[in-house]
Amino acid sequence: MRFYQFVGILGCTTAAFISIAPIEVEAATFKVISGVTSIDHDHEDILRNIELILTEANHTVAPIPNNYWVGFNIDSATNFTFSDEGGFTPLSGTIEQTGTVTFNDQITVGEFSIGFAPGRTTKDASGLVLRDTISLNTVLFDLSAPGLVAFDGQNLTIPDVKLLISPEFANILQKPDLTGSFAGTARIDAQVAAVPEPDSVLGTLAAGAALLATRFLTQKIKCT
Fold first, then answer.
1. How many domains does the chain have?
2. Which of 71, 112, 145, 204 has the highest CB neighbour count under 10 A?
3. Are residues 83 and 179 in the same domain?
4. DSSP character string of 6-54
5. What's this model's pTM, rounded to 2 decimal places?
Protein backbone atom coordinates (compact mmCIF):
# COMPACT_ATOMS: atom_id res chain seq x y z
CA MET A 1 0.00 0.00 0.00
CA ARG A 2 1.39 3.37 -1.04
CA PHE A 3 1.85 6.10 1.53
CA TYR A 4 -0.77 8.47 0.11
CA GLN A 5 -3.33 5.64 0.19
CA PHE A 6 -2.49 4.94 3.83
CA VAL A 7 -2.83 8.61 4.75
CA GLY A 8 -6.17 8.80 2.99
CA ILE A 9 -7.43 5.74 4.84
CA LEU A 10 -6.16 7.14 8.16
CA GLY A 11 -7.96 10.42 7.58
CA CYS A 12 -11.23 8.75 6.61
CA THR A 13 -11.03 6.21 9.42
CA THR A 14 -10.34 8.86 12.05
CA ALA A 15 -13.14 11.08 10.77
CA ALA A 16 -15.52 8.11 10.69
CA PHE A 17 -14.58 7.19 14.27
CA ILE A 18 -15.33 10.71 15.44
CA SER A 19 -18.64 10.79 13.58
CA ILE A 20 -19.90 7.54 15.13
CA ALA A 21 -18.46 8.06 18.61
CA PRO A 22 -21.16 8.99 21.14
CA ILE A 23 -21.13 12.66 22.05
CA GLU A 24 -20.96 13.16 25.80
CA VAL A 25 -21.09 16.45 27.62
CA GLU A 26 -18.18 16.38 30.04
CA ALA A 27 -16.90 18.84 32.58
CA ALA A 28 -14.21 21.13 31.18
CA THR A 29 -10.84 21.86 32.80
CA PHE A 30 -9.48 25.38 33.26
CA LYS A 31 -6.20 26.93 34.43
CA VAL A 32 -5.77 30.15 36.39
CA ILE A 33 -3.46 32.47 34.42
CA SER A 34 -3.64 35.85 36.20
CA GLY A 35 -5.59 37.95 38.68
CA VAL A 36 -5.51 39.29 42.23
CA THR A 37 -5.84 37.72 45.67
CA SER A 38 -7.29 40.28 48.08
CA ILE A 39 -7.42 40.38 51.87
CA ASP A 40 -10.19 42.21 53.72
CA HIS A 41 -9.63 44.79 56.48
CA ASP A 42 -10.85 42.33 59.11
CA HIS A 43 -7.53 40.49 58.70
CA GLU A 44 -5.55 43.59 59.68
CA ASP A 45 -7.78 44.20 62.69
CA ILE A 46 -7.53 40.63 63.95
CA LEU A 47 -3.74 40.53 63.56
CA ARG A 48 -3.48 43.81 65.44
CA ASN A 49 -5.35 42.16 68.31
CA ILE A 50 -2.60 39.55 68.56
CA GLU A 51 0.08 42.27 68.39
CA LEU A 52 0.99 41.92 64.72
CA ILE A 53 1.07 45.46 63.31
CA LEU A 54 1.63 46.04 59.59
CA THR A 55 4.72 48.24 59.18
CA GLU A 56 5.62 47.75 55.50
CA ALA A 57 4.24 46.36 52.25
CA ASN A 58 6.19 45.76 49.03
CA HIS A 59 4.99 44.96 45.50
CA THR A 60 1.38 44.69 46.57
CA VAL A 61 -1.48 45.90 44.35
CA ALA A 62 -4.91 47.46 44.69
CA PRO A 63 -7.34 44.89 46.09
CA ILE A 64 -10.59 43.75 44.49
CA PRO A 65 -12.97 45.15 45.60
CA ASN A 66 -11.24 48.41 46.43
CA ASN A 67 -12.62 48.53 49.98
CA TYR A 68 -10.47 45.53 50.90
CA TRP A 69 -7.14 45.98 52.68
CA VAL A 70 -4.41 44.75 50.30
CA GLY A 71 -4.01 42.80 47.06
CA PHE A 72 -1.40 40.38 45.73
CA ASN A 73 -0.88 39.78 42.02
CA ILE A 74 -1.30 36.21 40.82
CA ASP A 75 2.03 35.29 39.25
CA SER A 76 2.61 33.59 35.88
CA ALA A 77 4.16 30.61 37.73
CA THR A 78 0.62 29.64 38.78
CA ASN A 79 -0.46 26.19 37.54
CA PHE A 80 -3.72 25.80 39.45
CA THR A 81 -6.39 23.88 37.53
CA PHE A 82 -10.04 23.26 38.27
CA SER A 83 -13.10 21.67 36.73
CA ASP A 84 -16.45 23.37 36.16
CA GLU A 85 -18.15 20.21 37.41
CA GLY A 86 -20.52 21.26 40.15
CA GLY A 87 -19.60 24.87 39.41
CA PHE A 88 -16.06 24.71 40.79
CA THR A 89 -13.92 21.69 41.70
CA PRO A 90 -10.17 22.18 42.38
CA LEU A 91 -7.99 19.61 40.61
CA SER A 92 -4.27 20.31 41.04
CA GLY A 93 -1.48 22.88 41.17
CA THR A 94 -0.96 26.09 43.11
CA ILE A 95 -1.83 29.78 42.88
CA GLU A 96 1.40 31.78 43.23
CA GLN A 97 1.35 35.41 44.34
CA THR A 98 3.85 38.27 44.37
CA GLY A 99 4.29 40.85 47.13
CA THR A 100 5.31 40.87 50.77
CA VAL A 101 4.15 42.40 54.05
CA THR A 102 6.15 43.08 57.20
CA PHE A 103 4.78 43.11 60.74
CA ASN A 104 6.38 44.88 63.72
CA ASP A 105 9.43 45.69 61.56
CA GLN A 106 10.53 42.11 62.19
CA ILE A 107 8.47 39.44 60.41
CA THR A 108 8.27 39.59 56.61
CA VAL A 109 6.03 37.12 54.83
CA GLY A 110 4.77 36.91 51.29
CA GLU A 111 5.19 35.48 47.80
CA PHE A 112 2.26 33.39 49.02
CA SER A 113 1.36 30.03 47.52
CA ILE A 114 -2.16 28.61 47.71
CA GLY A 115 -2.57 24.90 47.13
CA PHE A 116 -4.12 21.69 48.42
CA ALA A 117 -2.48 19.94 51.37
CA PRO A 118 -3.57 16.31 51.87
CA GLY A 119 -4.75 15.49 55.36
CA ARG A 120 -5.77 19.04 56.31
CA THR A 121 -9.44 18.83 55.37
CA THR A 122 -11.73 19.26 58.38
CA LYS A 123 -15.30 20.43 58.98
CA ASP A 124 -13.97 24.01 58.91
CA ALA A 125 -11.01 23.78 56.53
CA SER A 126 -11.25 22.92 52.82
CA GLY A 127 -7.78 21.36 52.58
CA LEU A 128 -6.46 24.40 50.71
CA VAL A 129 -3.72 26.30 52.53
CA LEU A 130 -1.87 29.61 52.22
CA ARG A 131 1.87 29.17 52.54
CA ASP A 132 4.59 31.80 53.04
CA THR A 133 7.60 31.21 50.77
CA ILE A 134 9.79 34.17 51.84
CA SER A 135 10.98 33.65 55.41
CA LEU A 136 8.91 31.25 57.49
CA ASN A 137 8.41 28.80 54.59
CA THR A 138 5.40 27.21 56.20
CA VAL A 139 1.61 27.17 56.13
CA LEU A 140 0.24 30.33 57.72
CA PHE A 141 -3.48 29.74 57.22
CA ASP A 142 -5.85 26.92 56.44
CA LEU A 143 -8.59 28.10 54.10
CA SER A 144 -12.27 27.47 54.54
CA ALA A 145 -14.61 26.49 51.72
CA PRO A 146 -15.48 29.65 49.76
CA GLY A 147 -18.77 31.45 49.46
CA LEU A 148 -20.78 31.31 46.23
CA VAL A 149 -18.19 30.94 43.44
CA ALA A 150 -18.85 32.92 40.24
CA PHE A 151 -17.49 31.60 36.93
CA ASP A 152 -18.37 32.61 33.37
CA GLY A 153 -15.82 30.57 31.43
CA GLN A 154 -13.16 33.30 31.47
CA ASN A 155 -13.34 34.95 34.89
CA LEU A 156 -13.38 33.21 38.26
CA THR A 157 -14.33 34.83 41.57
CA ILE A 158 -13.82 32.89 44.80
CA PRO A 159 -15.28 35.04 47.60
CA ASP A 160 -15.59 34.87 51.37
CA VAL A 161 -12.70 32.50 52.08
CA LYS A 162 -12.00 32.40 55.82
CA LEU A 163 -8.34 32.45 56.89
CA LEU A 164 -7.84 30.07 59.83
CA ILE A 165 -4.58 30.29 61.77
CA SER A 166 -2.55 27.15 61.15
CA PRO A 167 -0.92 25.08 63.92
CA GLU A 168 2.47 25.99 62.42
CA PHE A 169 1.82 29.74 62.56
CA ALA A 170 0.30 29.51 66.04
CA ASN A 171 3.45 27.79 67.28
CA ILE A 172 5.69 30.42 65.67
CA LEU A 173 3.66 33.07 67.49
CA GLN A 174 4.05 30.98 70.66
CA LYS A 175 0.28 31.00 71.00
CA PRO A 176 -0.81 27.43 70.16
CA ASP A 177 -4.31 28.14 71.45
CA LEU A 178 -4.84 30.32 68.35
CA THR A 179 -4.85 27.25 66.09
CA GLY A 180 -7.98 27.27 63.93
CA SER A 181 -8.95 30.80 64.94
CA PHE A 182 -10.59 33.05 62.37
CA ALA A 183 -7.99 35.53 61.09
CA GLY A 184 -9.80 37.38 58.32
CA THR A 185 -11.36 37.00 54.89
CA ALA A 186 -9.75 36.51 51.48
CA ARG A 187 -11.04 36.67 47.93
CA ILE A 188 -9.60 35.56 44.58
CA ASP A 189 -10.47 37.27 41.29
CA ALA A 190 -8.77 35.42 38.46
CA GLN A 191 -8.67 35.19 34.69
CA VAL A 192 -8.61 31.64 33.39
CA ALA A 193 -8.04 29.69 30.18
CA ALA A 194 -9.49 26.37 29.09
CA VAL A 195 -7.16 23.36 29.15
CA PRO A 196 -7.43 21.36 25.88
CA GLU A 197 -9.16 18.02 26.32
CA PRO A 198 -7.94 14.78 24.67
CA ASP A 199 -10.92 14.89 22.29
CA SER A 200 -9.64 18.14 20.81
CA VAL A 201 -6.30 16.45 20.11
CA LEU A 202 -8.13 13.67 18.27
CA GLY A 203 -10.00 16.26 16.24
CA THR A 204 -6.73 17.95 15.32
CA LEU A 205 -5.29 14.58 14.25
CA ALA A 206 -8.29 13.93 12.01
CA ALA A 207 -8.07 17.35 10.39
CA GLY A 208 -4.33 17.00 9.87
CA ALA A 209 -4.67 13.53 8.37
CA ALA A 210 -7.40 14.68 6.01
CA LEU A 211 -5.29 17.68 4.90
CA LEU A 212 -2.23 15.49 4.38
CA ALA A 213 -4.25 12.99 2.36
CA THR A 214 -5.61 15.76 0.16
CA ARG A 215 -2.13 17.09 -0.55
CA PHE A 216 -0.73 13.69 -1.50
CA LEU A 217 -3.73 12.84 -3.66
CA THR A 218 -3.40 16.18 -5.44
CA GLN A 219 0.30 15.53 -6.03
CA LYS A 220 -0.49 12.04 -7.32
CA ILE A 221 -2.97 13.42 -9.87
CA LYS A 222 -0.43 15.98 -11.10
CA CYS A 223 2.17 13.27 -11.64
CA THR A 224 -0.10 10.88 -13.60
1. 2
2. 112
3. yes
4. HHHHHHHHHHHHHHHSPP-----EEEEEEEEEEE-HHHHHHHHHTT--E
5. 0.78
